[in-house]
Structures are given as C-alpha cells and as structure tokens.
C-alpha cells in the first residue's frame, strides 16, 4: 500500500512538473494573443493590464489590411514550400547514397558533411550574397532552389539513419528484377520513409517560413517574405511600432506552421523515433 501511494505521488509530481513547464513555455504565446486583442491605450498603462477590457477582434482584420499581408504571405508560402520539397527530396537522395552505395572515402565525406552542422550559417552570409549578386540572382527565387537542391546536413543524417534500417533483401530483390538505384530509391526507399519525409518537411518549412536574414538580403520589398515585411510594416506615421497590430499579425503568422505541425504531428514524432532506433 505504501509503495502504491509513493508511486502515485511520483506520477502526480511528474505530471505537475509537466503542467508547470507547459504553462511556462506557452506563456509568451498567451501574452502575444492577449496583446493582439488589446486597444492601443491599454498597451502603455501601468501597472500592466493582463486582460483586454473589451477584446478588439478587428485588430486581426486591421493587421491584414495595414500591410499587404496576403501578398507577403503568398511569397513566404512559395519560398517555404519550394525549400521544403526540394530540401527533403535532395537530402533523401544523398542519404540513400551514403546508406546503400559503396564508394571510396564514403565515411570520410559523410563525417565531413556532418561536421558542417557545427559551422554557424551566418559566417557564410556575406560570401553567399556576393556570389549571388555577381551571378545576377538577387531578387529571384533561384537561391532557394539551389539551397534546396544542395540538401541539408541534418536531414541527410536523419534519412541515412532511417535507410540503414531498411532490409537489404528488398533492395536485392529489386536489383534481381532489373531495377536501378534511381528506381529503387523512388519506388522502395522513399515510399517507406513517410514519417521521415513528414518530419523533414515540417522542419524545413518552419525554418524557411521564419527566415529573416536571407530574404532581407536577397529579395526586394515587393518580393520579400512576411517575416521581413512585418518588422518594418506595422509602424505609425511617427515611426513607432503599432504593438497590437504587430501582435495580431504575429499570431496569424504562426498559424500555418502550427497547423502544419498538428497535421503531421503523428508522422513527425514517428519519424524521429524511427530514425533514432535504426
């Protein structure tokens, strides 16, 4: 009986800690939503007013009309989808080579690829911009196509871990039937990697959707993304930020990523668990 009570106490304490952590980590999101529903005069009062007196639901409509919200969102959607699809497929293709093909120095090149994850991407920003500027690719979507085709080291690692766990008998049977490596990849390996595809799509889409530095450097104002446009768009005639509209726009900004994660949540978790077990 005493052991049962102690076990229940441990379980209760564990879930209580989870609830506390959930409240802490969801606090900024809750504050963002509350701010988006406040009137302008409620943002500067002291002491701070936690709840809005009357929820200003029209702030969301004003946030959409204050800037070309839908136009910038379209740009973000194009870039994010392009980046997610190309990066996921190219990373899976490269991972198939590392997992299944034999080549001299394969382990060395894979280790060199993984080591690039320790290098901050910011240090290549200026050389990358100069390279695209000299090639005349600034203010186009070509850089995102090239980045997508080059894959991502972390995604390649995840796919390789997953592919090494696929039975070799499937590959050998396909080879006996006359299949080449391209067909084996597209018809055997890729269909079985659904959870990994979903996980990598969500991660890549989220990174591209929230990216600020690359679009601000490489795209003009009319082709820029929503993340860049929001930073300078929600200002009044005096140049001060309109906090409630910025909060409303930010709330709308995170909805696509949140919906995508909720839709692929089962595959997202399954993808990471299976890649870790292989």
UniProtKB/TrEMBL annotation:
Q: Which domain of life is it from?
A: Bacteria
Bilayer topology reads: Multi-pass membrane protein
Q: Where in or outside the cell? A: Cell membrane
Q: Which family does it belong to?
A: Belongs to the binding-protein-dependent transport system permease family.
Q: Which UniProt keywords apply?
A: Cell membrane, Membrane, Transmembrane, Transmembrane helix, Transport
According to its UniProt entry, the protein's GO biological process terms are: transmembrane transport
Q: What is any one of the record's Gene Ontology cellular component terms?
A: plasma membrane
Heme as a keyword?
A: no
> What name goes with this protein?
Carbohydrate ABC transporter permease
Looking up PANTHER family in the UniProt record yields: ABC TRANSPORTER PERMEASE PROTEIN MG189-RELATED, ABC TRANSPORTER PERMEASE PROTEIN MG189-RELATED-RELATED
Annotated TM spans: 12-34, 77-96, 108-132, 144-163, 184-209, 245-264
Alphabetized InterPro entries for the sequence: MetI-like (IPR000515), MetI-like_sf (IPR035906)
Identify the Pfam families for this entry.
BPD_transp_1
List each copy of the ABC transmembrane type-1 domain by range. 73-264
């Amino acid at each position: 009986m005493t052991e049962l009570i102690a076990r229940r106490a441990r379980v209760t304490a564990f879930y209580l800690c989870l609830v506390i952590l959930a409240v802490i980590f969801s606090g900024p999101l809750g504050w963002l939503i509350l701010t988006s529903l406040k009137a302008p005069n409620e943002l500067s009062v002291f002491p701070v007013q936690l709840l809005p007196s009357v929820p200003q639901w029209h702030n969301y409509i004003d946030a959409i009309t204050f800037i070309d919200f839908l136009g910038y969102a379209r740009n973000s959607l194009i870039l994010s989808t392009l980046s997610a699809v190309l990066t996921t497929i190219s990373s899976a293709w490269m991972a198939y080579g590392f997992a299944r093909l034999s080549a001299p120095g394969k382990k060395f090149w894979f280790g060199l690829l993984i080591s690039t994850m320790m290098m901050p991407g910011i240090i290549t920003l200026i050389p990358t911009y100069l390279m695209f500027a000299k090639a005349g690719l600034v203010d186009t979507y070509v850089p995102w196509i090239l980045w997508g085709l080059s894959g991502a080291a972390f995604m390649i690692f995840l796919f390789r871990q997953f592919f090494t766990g696929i039975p070799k008998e499937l590959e050998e049977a396909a080879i006996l039937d006359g299949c080449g490596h391209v067909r084996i990849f597209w018809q055997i390996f890729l269909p079985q990697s659904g959870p990994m595809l979903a996980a990598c799509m969500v991660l890549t889409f989220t990174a591209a959707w929230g990216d600020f530095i690359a679009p601000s450097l490489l795209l003009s104002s009319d082709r820029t993304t929503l993340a860049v446009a929001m930073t300078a768009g929600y200002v009044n005639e005096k140049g001060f930020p309109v906090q409630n509209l910025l909060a409303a726009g930010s709330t709308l900004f995170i909805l696509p990523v949140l919906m995508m994660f909720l839709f692929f949540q089962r595959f997202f978790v399954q993808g990471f668990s299976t890649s870790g077990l292989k």
